[in-house]
Structures are given as C-alpha cells and as structure tokens.
Design brief:
Length: 451
C-alpha cells in the first residue's frame, strides 16, 4: 500500500511538472520572434527550457545586471565614492569636488556639515565653487530615450549629485473645500510651485513641470480627497551643480555655520588639500539601490564611474560602455556579435539587443563567484515583497522566493533572475518579450514552483 502511494505521488508530480512545462513552453512559442527565453538549473548544470534563447531583443532595465556585475568586479564590493570639501580659512570660501557619487542625499550633507564643524569651520563667505570634472559634461547619454522628459527617471548625470538630481513635490489634504498643503522635499529657491490643489471628494491631481531660465516651475491643479494619503511626484533637476551648491549653503546655515555674505555658486577647480572627504556607503549597497528600484540615474552614473576609475580618465558613457563590453566578453558574451548591441548601461534606450542565453551565461558566472553572488542576489527585487516586483507574482508559489531584475519600456518586458527550488537547486531564469508581448507570469510561476 505504501509503495503504491509513493508511486502515485511520483507519477502525479511528474505529470504536474510536465503540464506546467508544456503550458509555459506553448505560451512562449506563440509569441514567435517576439520572445527570447531560457531556464537553466545552475546547481545541476542542466538546461530546462529554451525558446529562441539566442535571439537578441531589447531587455530594457534587465541590462542593469551587466552594469552591476562589471562595477562590482572592476571596482570591488567595498568601493566607495569620495566627495571632497575644500575650505579657504582666510577668505571663508568653499570648493566641493565631486567623485560621481549617485547615492549622495540630504542626510549625507547633514553629516558633512557636522564633520566640518568638528574640523573648526565656524562661518563662511557664502561663496561655493563646484568641481564636477570627474565626469564629462554630457548629462544625458546619447542613446537615452526621452531626453526632454521632466520625470525623475530622466535625471541628469553629473560628477556631483544631490538627492538623485531630483526634486519631489508633496500634496497633503487639509479640510474639505480648502486648499491642500503643498511642499518640497528640499526648500530650493530655484523651484517654484504654482497653482492650487483643493481638498474635496476623490483624488485627481494634475501636474506639469517646465524649465524657465534658472527656474524649475511645477504647476499643480485638481483635487485630493480629505482622507487621502500624501500625494508625491518626483521630477528631474536640470542643473545638478547649482542644486548641490544651494543645498550645501542652506544646510551650513541651518546647521549652525552662518554665512557672512550672499550665496554665490560658481563652477571651478578645487586646489590644495581638502579639509574633509566624505565616503559613500559600499558599492554593494549602491548596487542594491539601483537594482531594487531600477534606478536609471545610478546605472548611468556607474557606467561613467567605471571609465573614471579603471581608465583613470574623465568618466564618459562611451568609456564605461566599452569596459562593460570587455568584461562581458571575458565570460563568453560578445555584445557586438550575432545582432547584439549594447549602448546604455541603464537600459533606458532602444539601442540594446541582448539574448536570453547571454543573461543565463552571466548568471552562471555569478553563481561561480562567491563574493559577487550574495551582493548581486540581495540587490534583486523579491517577488511579491519589494522593489519592482512588489506587486508581481502575489499569491503564487514563487512569492517570496523568486528574485529578479525587471525591465519595462514601451512594448518591452523582461525578467532575469534566480529561483531556489524546495529541493535546494538554484534555477536561472531569463525571459525577454518585445513587440508588445507580456511576460506570461502565471505560467512562469506555475512552472518554477513545480521544479
């Protein structure tokens, strides 16, 4: 009796696995040349599924995995960006030299001001020179889509950055029939908010942003419900150097380092020895910020940082892209062969074409590298839990288990990641869908959970 039960269970399991495979395989094949997909057992070294796996397609933001791997490999998981602060004590002037840190935010600037006070800085002239020459002046990579967009995903790339080179506008309800409360995440003088949002029934906030000279103008309208949560919309800042300078000026004054004159922000070259050098969190942490939320700004900054650090030249997109291509070729991925193209490390482009087999090759390499593996794996969103996968695969058996880098553009979807089976095997997954096709999430989840 016991033997019969075991046999039936095994037969049932094989049938379910075969059925799930057939469902996913059939769905993918119906997409024709609009899909490139492969599933590979990393533990056993065995291919499990392949549909047009060698067909290069646009993977959108999944390409950030190539950028992340190259940065972690060439720079090291403990690499940190340096932002140097120079102070001419007699004149009271500051000069700030950026190191390309894409993770430098308001909290970091507060820590800098406290450190400067400990170094003996008691006041300053109001003059702040900004040196962002570690990167070139091309703030929008040539192949980036939507270069005129005011949205946060189109933030400019600079050698000196603040709050991801974005500004967020917040709207909170007041009492019904009255104007809502509007605020910014940092009180920049060059950002002006116009219009009015009324507190009422239902939420329908309208917005627009334009640049006019040195001003950033955000226009608001519409309504917000009296019981609504805070409404937030982030936008790009067009002049990162000025934004950093003004933020530094205000934080110094707010932190107890008064100015002796009016704010004067200029571009210049820092000379001499810095009074203080601020180090970012380790690169592994920064990569996590990039991958979890698919941050294009961080990715494009890492591309330039690679060129600056490895080639010891001014950081450029072209230089960083060449380094990523070279690193991929070392592990068996030729990004210039067989219809493949790689022009942008963020994936915000129509110019990248990479096949599913290439991503599987990358994951095979990562699986063998025990230093890189935990850093890259932990950076990936977890299905149904966080990041860009927070609302995906909810209620399926892969929720809380599948980790993957997603990609989305108009007509493009992709997921590249790793799934641990209940038996302990590690499964590499790469699915790229173009031409308006969608990732078959239900079929993919059913198949993975049956492995």
């Amino acid at each position: 009796m016991h033997t019969k039960f075991i046999c039936r269970a095994l037969i049932s399991g094989i049938f379910l696995s075969s059925s799930a495979f057939a469902g996913l395989d059939s769905t993918l094949k119906k997409m024709g040349k609009g899909v490139s997909a492969q599933v590979f057992n990393l533990t056993q070294g065995k291919n499990l599924l392949s549909v047009n796996s060698d067909l290069p397609l646009n993977p959108a933001s999944s390409v950030k995995l190539l950028t992340a791997y190259t940065a972690l490999t060439k720079l090291g998981i403990n690499y940190s960006f340096k932002t140097s602060f120079y102070y001419a004590a007699k004149k009271g002037d500051f000069c700030v030299k950026g190191g390309g840190d894409p993770s430098f935010v308001m909290e970091d600037l507060y820590l800098v001001v406290e450190a400067l006070k400990r170094k003996g800085v008691e006041d300053f002239s109001g003059k702040i020179a900004i040196d962002s020459s570690v990167f070139d002046q091309e703030m929008y990579p040539e192949d980036r889509n939507s270069q005129d967009s005011e949205r946060a995903y189109n933030a400019p790339i600079s050698g000196l950055n603040f709050n991801y080179n974005t500004i967020s506008v917040f709207v909170n309800p007041s009492t019904k029939g009255h104007a809502a409360r509007v605020g910014l995440d940092f009180p920049f003088d060059f950002v002006k908010v116009t219009g009015k949002v009324m507190t009422g029934s239902g939420t329908d906030v309208s917005w627009d942003k334009k640049g006019k000279g040195d001003q950033e103008i955000v226009s608001l309208g519409g309504k917000i419900s009296e019981d609504a949560d805070e409404w937030r919309k982030p936008f790009r800042i067009r002049d990162p150097a000025h934004a950093f300078g003004e933020a530094f000026f205000k934080m110094l004054n707010h932190g107890g380092v008064p100015t002796k004159g009016a704010m004067q922000i200029s571009k210049g070259a820092c000379v001499g020895d810095p009074i203080f050098v601020y180090s970012s969190k380790p690169l592994g942490f920064v990569v996590g910020l990039m991958d979890k939320y698919s941050n294009n700004f961080i990715a494009d900054s890492l591309v330039k940082a690679l060129a600056a650090e490895v080639d010891h030249k001014q950081g450029t997109t072209e230089g960083g892209v060449k380094l990523i291509r070279a690193e991929m070729k070392k592990i068996g991925i030729d990004l210039l062969a067989g219809g493949r193209h790689f022009v942008a490390g963020s994936g915000l482009t129509d110019g990248n074409d990479i096949a599913a087999v290439d991503f599987i090759t990358l994951l095979k390499q990562v699986y063998r590298e025990k230093t890189i593996l935990p850093e890259l794996l932990s950076s990936l969103p977890l299905a149904g839990v966080d990041g860009t996968l927070k609302k995906k695969y909810v209620g399926t058996d892969v929720q809380g288990r599948l980790r993957g880098k997603t990609g989305t553009l108009n007509g493009v979807q992709s997921i590249v990641g790793i799934y641990p089976t209940m038996s302990g095997d590690w499964i590499a997954v790469a699915v790229i869908a173009n031409g308006g096709h969608a990732i078959p999430e239900r079929e993919l989840a059913d198949y993975l959970s049956d492995l």
